[in-house]
Specification:
The complex is a heterodimer of chains A (257) and B (206).
Chain A: H1 8-15, H2 19-27, H3 33-60, H4 63-85, H5 89-116, H6 124-155, H7 157-165, H8 170-194, H9 203-210, H10 215-248
Helix pairs in contact in A: 4-5, 4-6, 5-6, 5-10, 6-7, 6-8, 6-10, 7-8, 8-10, 9-10
Chain B: E1 2-11, E2 14-24, E3 29-33, H1 40-46, E4 55-60, E5 63-64, H2 70-75, E6 77-80, H3 91-96, H4 111-120, H5 137-150, E7 155-159, H6 167-178, E8 184-188, H7 192-196, E9 200-203
Parallel strand pairs in B: 3-8, 3-9, 6-7, 7-8
Antiparallel strand pairs in B: 1-2, 1-4, 4-5
The chains are: A mainly alpha (257), B alpha/beta (206).
């Protein structure tokens, strides 16, 4: 069955939907109007470009170009995380990037190598979109986790000092903040996983069905991707927090910024 | 023994404390007093390495406090900061929190032991089952002091442990602190009655 194409005029019509959220973001003085419009514009341009690039990436299907592409995505994702959390870029960029790279490699190798098993693990058609989806979710999870972790450390500095001053190791003193970061970051994912299929039809599945795949194949991909996204996001959040700790705390366990 | 050797603390480019030298013997109960803003709390916070001196050094039992020894020092300290709220819903959770730390686990007190200490500090037994928001500042201060005592550390650091107490409770707290025979206690206080009851008074001011 052929997928119905959306004409550019009708896309403009679709964009008009943005007026409603933008109005309320403006009315409640959230300061997010500019960010929203900029994000929507970036998303549109980026996706048009990616559509164009992907054509070529799939055509070339070269291991090194594919890897380079994913590294570029990691660089952008890491920088975006730090911009959104307003944490010091210089101090934490490598921590986030290494955490993303390691968790992405682990999950890609596991998922593509053992579950999907294409002829070549790093083949563009699987490696790039799946890495992109994983990275996008890692990004959101890390923004929430880092905001929560460093935010609560600032708010509840006395708790941290209280635990340290009464014999806690640095890891023990940070445990309540790690716990809170994990809860805040993963509660929404767990909730959305629990109702998936009932009140939410996920993007990948919908996309595959619209693209002509059979619903039974689309569902299997969706289930596996949800598990993959959950595992990779959690691994990346833990790695980011562990690695960033080494940069953000001095040898006395005091936060540097 | 805690030795402060020629300490200088600079805050906002101005000296908060300059060339301070002092020695507190093992088991001694010493009170830091004097006008606000002269570095009493800073000096107290320097013992577990929360604030580092800009000049001078701190030695605990002859070992200089630095990044390599700070963790050993913290294992030996009980720390009670000035007025603050901990995010524990119930008094029981508040009491148990520091005993969940690996180093303190073996010392976790039974309910009976806690209630015995409640008696010594003039606290009603019902408080044990209350929520943290249901108790007064003075009750919370005595409970925090009790936790510091039950941790059985060599060095007890108390920042204004009596600021919210009524006169009766102050007398009990004084006796309670004196009963910590083995511990070296270093306290900050503005309360004249409290300060007078200690032999070792260290003035921090101009």
């Amino acid at each position: 069955m052929e997928t119905i194409n959306i004409g550019y005029g009708h896309m403009v019509l679709g964009f008009l939907l943005l007026i409603i959220p933008t109005y309320f973001l403006y009315r409640y003085r959230t300061g997010l109007v500019k960010d929203t419009l900029w994000a929507a514009l970036r998303m549109t341009v980026q996706l048009f470009f990616i559509g164009f690039y992907l054509e070529y990436l799939f055509l070339w299907d070269n291991l090194w170009i594919n890897l380079l592409w994913v590294v570029l995505m990691i660089v952008i994702a890491s920088s975006t995380v730090l911009k959104r959390t307003k944490l010091p870029q210089k101090m934490l960029f490598m921590a986030v990037a290494v955490a993303f790279l390691v968790s992405l490699l682990i999950i890609d190798l596991y998922f593509l190598g053992l579950v999907v098993r294409p002829e070549k693990i790093f083949t563009a058609r699987y490696f790039i979109p799946i890495s992109g989806m994983i990275l996008g979710n890692m990004l959101s999870a890390n923004v929430i986790a880092l905001n929560s972790f460093y935010g609560s450390l600032n708010r509840e500095r006395q708790l941290y000092l209280y635990l340290l001053g009464n014999g806690a190791t640095p890891g023990e003193a940070l445990a309540p903040f790690m716990r809170e970061a994990l809860i805040k970051s993963f509660n929404p994912t767990i909730a959305s996983m629990a109702v998936m299929g009932l009140i939410a039809l996920p993007g990948t599945m919908t996309g595959q069905i619209l693209g002509g795949s059979s619903p039974s194949v689309a569902i299997k991909y969706q289930i596996m991707l949800m598990i993959t996204i959950f595992a990779s996001s959690l691994i990346s959040v833990l790695l980011t927090l562990w690695i960033s700790r080494r940069k953000t705390f001095d040898r006395y366990g005091m936060k540097r910024f | 023994m805690i030795e402060f050797d020629n300490l200088t603390f600079i805050y906002d480019n101005k000296p908060l404390m300059q060339h301070f030298t002092c020695c507190i013997a093992r088991g001694e109960k010493a009170v830091l007093y004097g006008p606000s803003g002269h570095g009493k709390s800073t000096l107290l916070a320097s013992v577990p390495g929360f604030v580092l001196p800009d000049e001078g050094s701190i030695r605990i039992d002859g070992r200089t406090l630095d990044a390599t020894t700070v963790q050993q020092v913290r294992r030996r300290t009980a720390w009670l900061p000035q007025e603050f709220t901990l995010p524990y819903d119930t008094i029981q959770e508040l009491i148990e929190a520091p005993f969940r730390l690996r180093i303190n686990q073996a010392l976790k007190p039974s309910r009976e032991t806690v209630l015995e200490h409640f008696d010594r500090l003039g606290l009603e037994h019902e408080l044990y089952d209350k929520r943290s928001i249901e108790i007064s500042g003075g009750q919370r201060q005595r409970i925090m002091l009790m936790i510091a005592a039950l941790l059985q550390k060599d060095i007890v650091l108390l920042d204004e442990p009596t600021s919210a107490l009524d006169p009766d409770s102050i007398a009990r707290v004084i006796n309670y602190i004196h009963s910590l025979h083995e511990a070296t206690v270093l306290m900050v206080s503005h309360d004249a009655r409290f300060i007078d009851s200690f032999d070792r008074k260290i003035y921090i001011g101009d």
